[in-house]
Structure formats: structure tokens, C-alpha cells
Amino acid sequence: MAATRHSALARCGRHLPRLYHHEHRGFHSSPISIVRQQQPQRGFSSSRSLASPVLLSNTNIQDIRADLLERPEQLTFDTLSPTPSFLLDVSLADYLGVSPSKANRFAGLRPEPRYPWSSAAVSAGTEEEDDAAAAAAAAAGGGAPADPYATLKQGYHLIHFPLALPPSRLCPDGTDPYHSPGLGWDQVFARRMWAGGRIEFDHQRPLRLQPQLPGERILDVDVRGPPGEEKLFVNVLREYDWARPRLSFNHKTKENELAPTKASLEGRKGSVVEVRTLVFLRKEEEQKVHARSESSIDTAKLIKVPFEPTFKLSLVPDRTLLFHFSALSYNAHLIHLDERYSQDVEGRPGLLVHGPLCLILMLKVLRRSHRERQAKKKEANNNNSNNKEKTKKSSSDEENEELLVSKIEYRNLAPLYVGDRMTVCVRSPNGTGHAQRHDVWIENQHGGLCVKGTVVTV
Fold this sequence. Notes:
This protein is of the alpha+beta class. Helix content is 27%, strand content 20%. A hairpin with a 5-residue loop joins strand 15 and strand 16 (449-457).
């Protein structure tokens, strides 16, 4: 296995693309965050105090950027199976108000629109309806049924493709060193947060439950902020099931040839094309950590959403949920696992909720909102006695209509903490046309905006 992976890495040791710029406007903006975190240290000892911050010169910035962009592509092998999706749905059932009887064994998977053992198309309804349809097709003599749940539900790739590194090779805070600045600057920009991202789905070519080998590479490096308070933004491109072209890094110009642009990403043929934005911040002096810990939630600086949601769901994340998600995603970041570390080193009041968990919650609540809207339409149509026959067909079509996401962009604006109530909100348009745009966001217990995003559905 090690030899196979090494040869695969050698064959795919191509260099990386250059900058990938976004516009930042409202709910349709690209992901950035302004959330601070403290320098991670093993043994829960705070970082060494600096007499004065290390200033970055233009040459330093160019060196940091070139070092990150030159890093070879990372390949992460995983054989997709239904088990992680099932465990994720079981872990979320209590928090989302799903009864155990409906926590179907295949609830995390999307069925194929047509069963391979039957000549008749079968619409995707509820999991129970699909299981019954599969059994009926097999009983009718259609042959041995194949697995109808052969593709991964949108967003569930976030709990697959784990980081395959021993603990000794992780950063002190338990994170992936591939994204961290090198040349010694990881000692300066040592605090990391998941700032947001952008995901595009090809609903006609979903990820199948089979061996996958997606590629990951640094797409964009950007330094922002005044001298001594710089923030390092690193955009990481992940491509799933896509034939990646060979790129070359020009050492003279410090640029990547064939660099993708935002427009070219729109035309990619991958099942899932994702850009994750990580922000690295400077480590702080010990007294600043404690001062920030005591005032981590400033209600005077809360951002309020200027409109009401069409659907919302509240939950209180606890340690069990964070542990389960860390285990499912193989995430060893200590801010999610060790409260003492989060408080004494990061300067936080408690454990932080995962960024990708928030993303999955927004997608799940959006789907529930869609189902409830469909149910209300069906009820309204059934109450119309003049259109019973017409309603019988249209309501069936609507009930079986699956909400498919084409694209989601999101930004993490403020942290969410374990034990604090969070509300996942959706604002959907009234129409039922194609390519609809939905606003999704998460508020904390004070009503402050913590995560905001935009979803485009098919």
C-alpha cells in the first residue's frame, strides 16, 4: 500500500496553480473570516512572548507564497462506503429532531434515479419508499438487486478522505502541516481557522461508493492586514473524480502556468470541486490570550441579519457531537477536542464547533426546508376539491422531487461554541423555477451572525 501510494504521488508530482481571487460582496461573497485563535502548543503551555512582532517585507511575502505554491499535489485515497454517512446521520438525529425509526441505515446516501435491475425508472422519494421500490422490483423478477444507494449525498464528502499522517507529523494543534506556511513562518502564523469555502457539485456525476483518489493543492496565497497584524489566507483546491491537467511551476516568475481562474473553475468536470479557505494569524502574548478569552463574545459587535428566515432550526451542540464529528472526519484539531487547550492556549471560552459541521448542517436544514415546503404544497393542493385528479399527479411529482445543490459559497464570521444554542436559518425564494438562490446562515445564542452562505440549487 505504501509503495503504491508513493508511486502514485511520484506520478502526480505536478506543481500548483497561482492566485484565485474573489469578489467580496454580501451573502454572495467568497469565504474569508476575521476570527482569531491562539498559537497551538503541546502540553498546554502558551507561546513564548515576543518583545515586538516580526514584520513582513515584500520579499518575505513572496517567499511564503512561492513556498506554498510549489508544494506538490497531495493525494488522499479512500474507499467510500455507506458506514460513515450512516454514523453521521445517527450522530445528528437527536439534534435535528429525527426519530430513531427514520434514521434509516442509508439516510446519508442519495439513490440512483433508475435501478439497474429494472427497466422502469424509479423516482427518488423517501428512504423507506426507495427500499420498498427496490424490493418490489427484485420480487418482480428483475434479477438480483444492485445497491440503489450507490452515490454519496451532497456535502458528505467532508467526512471522507481522512488525513493519513501519524501524530508526530501533525502541527502542534493537531492540524495538517501541508497548509501551514514554511521557512520558519509557521512559528509566527501559528493560529489557524477554517474561514469558509466554495463547493460546486455535478449532480449528473455524483461521487460513487467506490475507491477514490482526489487531489489537493494550494490554489491561492494572500497576505492582508497592516504591518504586525497580517493575516495569511490560503485557498486549498480539492478536486474529486476529475482528470487533472499537468501544471508546471515557473521558478523565475514564481507563477504557475495554466493557472485556473474563477471562470475556468465553473467549467470543471469533477463530481465535486471545492475551495477551502484557511486563515493563519499571528501568535499572541500570554496576557493577550487571557484578555481575549474573557471577552470572546462581545454582544456590542454582533452582526444582525436584515431579513427573516423562511425556515429555521435550533440546536445545542455538545461535547458528544463534536467528538463524533471529529472521529468521523478524522480531525485532530485540539480546539474541538480539549477544552483546557482551547481556553489556555487559544484564549477561547470553550470548544469550537467545526466549520465543515456547520456547512453540513446548513445543507441538511435547507433540504428539510424544501421537504416541508413540498408537504405544504401537497396539503394545499389536496384541499382544493376542484383539482383532485390534477393534484394527484402534481403532488406526487413534487413529493419525489429531490433538492440538488449546484453550488454553495459560505463564510465563517465568528466562532460557535459547545453548549451555546445555535440557529440554522434558510431564506428561500417563493418560486419553483430552476437555478434558485437560497440564503443560509447560522446565528449564535445572542442572534449574532456567525456563518453566512448562498446556495444555488438545480
